[in-house]
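Sequence and structure are no longer studied apart. As an example, we show below a sequence and the tokens encoding its fold:
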Amino acid sequence: MLESLLPYFLLVLFLFVLFIIWRNNARKYISSSTVASAYDAWTQDKLLERLWGEHIHLGYYPAGKKNIDFRKAKIQFVHELVKWSGLDTLPKGSRILDIGCGIGGSARILAKYYGFNVTGITISPAQVKRARELTPLGLSCDFQVMDALDLKFEDGTFDAVWSVEAGAHMNDKTKFADEMLRTLRPGGYLTLADWNSRDLRAYPPSFVEKLVLKQLLEQWVHPNFMSVNEFTSILRTNKNSSGKVVSENWNSYTNPSWYDSIFEGFRRPFSILSLGPLAIVKSIREIPTILLMNWAFKKGLMEFGVYKCRG
């Protein structure tokens, strides 16, 4: 009888140990330096790059279709956001600021396929180093370490400002909007995609939802989330905005990404195994947060907001 229960006991023990590792290694937001440290670590261990390619952001699945290669879905996301926001109407040579550029995946697409001159900024020195390594000579991309809340550019420097999944790491969303719109020329294009919560003031979270939100904040260095409507209002009332802001919820197009981000480990096992035993532990450690993200987005507790407006 005891022998037959042993596999179940070991499974429970494994899950308990995983939970302890997950909780004790939380990445709580303290300051921008904690964001930089987290992305430095993710970049230097190469796990995300090996699994997901050059793009850390979610993918785009037309009409929620799931049978799409995860890496291709990420590339498709960039093209869909360009088309939706109108960036494809800008002439070649236009100056683009990519805020939260990661290791440069989106910047290289914007430069290669649309002929833009792209400046990518990130708080992570390791990401800048890797972005430069991955960018071919001759491609109009420049990468710099810079805080998005203190951009070192003159007013109206760029024809467009692009940011994907960076705003959730900003502790001051109003300042984030101020800096983006300040550096955008009059009539320029702002294109933004981000993780948002639903309106928690109008629809307060339940006890379980509060626990989930707490984990989503603490595990991936997020200081706070804001609803799509709240951030839309910030953009609309900014002194450098035209006031014409369009926002949408792209949950239905991006939600398949969460399961795909886990399945990539099974599709490309050598990507993990080639990095050694510690990489296996690190990859398993991310699964609970990914599953919580999937649940939150499916239930509408979280929303994938996309925004476009003119300077």
